[in-house]
Design a protein that fits this description.
By secondary structure, the protein is mainly beta. It contains two helices and 15 strands. Helices cover 9% and strands 61% of the residues.
C-alpha cells in the first residue's frame, strides 16, 4: 500500500494505491491478487465534519461513498455513512446431481453487481452518567432473507456434517443480515462499568442480547463478567447458531 496526504487548515486530501492478495481459495485455486487506487477528501466545518471517498479496484470495480458526523450541544452526536460498491462476492446455495437420487447441495461464492452499505446512528449522554448508542445499518453484500430461508430449509432436511460445515464457512464470512438495529447502553463510572447490547434483524426478529459488568478498580487491570444469548424463535437465523447461551469472564492487564 502506498499513501500520501496533503493537509489544510481544516481538513486533508489522501491519495492511496494498493495491492490486495486474498488468502482464500476458489475451487481449490488461490484467488488472484488485485490492484486499485483512490482518494479521500476530509473537511471539518463548524460543528460537524464530513468526508468523501472514491476508489477503483480491478476486481471490485468502483467504490464511492462518504460519511458525516455532527455534535449538537453537550449530549448528542449524530453520525452516518454510505458506500456503493460495483462488484462484490456473495454465497449461493446450489444443488448438484439433480437427476439422481443422491442430490448434493453446494455453497459457492459468486460475483454480484451493485451493493450498498449504509449506517445511521446517534450517541446520547444522560446527566445520570448513562450513554446510549443507537444504530441502524444495511449491508447489501450480506445474504438476503430468501437465501437464509433456502439454507435453513436445506439444513432441516437432514444434510450431512460436511455440508453443514460448508454452509457455516461461507455464511460466516461477512455480516449475517442485510439489515440490523443495535441499542447499546453503558455507564461512565470509573470503577464499575455495566453495559447492555441488543442487536436485532428486523426481517426475521433474530435477537442477540449481551450484558456485561466490568470492574476497573485495579491500577493496571480490568475484570469483566458477561452473559450472551440468542433469541427470536426456532426459524430465526440466530437460532441456527450453536452456543445459544454463553457466559464469559475476561481479564485485561496493562503493563
Amino acid at each position: 500500500m502506498i499513501t500520501g496526504d496533503y493537509f489544510t487548515e481544516s481538513g486533508n486530501i489522501t491519495v492511496i494505491c494498493n495491492e490486495t492478495k486474498p488468502d482464500y481459495l476458489e475451487r481449490g485455486i488461490k484467488v488472484a491478487q488485485s490492484y486499485g487506487c483512490g482518494g479521500r477528501y476530509y473537511q471539518f466545518f463548524d460543528g460537524y465534519e464530513a468526508q468523501a471517498i472514491a476508489h477503483y479496484d480491478d476486481k471490485l470495480g468502483f467504490r464511492i461513498g462518504g460519511s458525516t458526523l455532527a455534535v449538537i450541544g453537550d449530549s448528542l452526536e449524530l453520525h452516518s455513512s454510505l458506500l456503493w460498491q460495483q462488484n462484490y462476492r456473495s454465497p449461493k446455495v446450489t444443488q448438484l446431481y439433480k437427476n439422481t437420487l443422491s442430490a448434493y447441495d453446494n455453497v459457492e461464492t459468486i460475483w454480484r453487481k451493485g451493493s450498498l452499505q449504509a449506517l445511521v446512528g446517534f450517541n446520547y449522554s444522560f446527566s445520570m452518567g448513562v450513554t446510549a448508542i443507537v444504530e441502524y445499518w444495511h449491508d447489501g453484500r450480506a445474504p438476503s432473507d430468501k437465501q437464509w430461508r433456502t439454507l435453513i430449509a436445506r439444513a432441516n432436511e437432514g444434510v450431512q456434517d460436511h455440508q453443514l460445515r460448508l454452509y457455516r464457512a461461507h455464511f460466516s464470512t461477512q455480516n449475517l443480515f442485510r439489515d440490523s438495529v443495535m441499542v447499546h447502553l453503558r455507564t461512565s463510572n470509573s470503577t464499575w462499568q455495566p453495559s447492555m447490547t441488543w442487536l436485532t434483524n428486523p426481517q426475521d426478529n433474530s435477537m442477540l442480547i449481551n450484558s456485561e459488568l466490568c470492574y476497573s478498580g485495579f491500577k493496571n487491570g480490568r475484570l469483566c463478567l458477561g452473559y450472551r444469548s440468542y433469541a427470536g424463535g426456532s426459524e430465526t437465523i440466530y437460532e441456527q447458531l450453536s452456543h445459544q447461551k454463553t457466559g464469559y469472564f475476561s481479564v485485561e492487564i496493562k503493563l
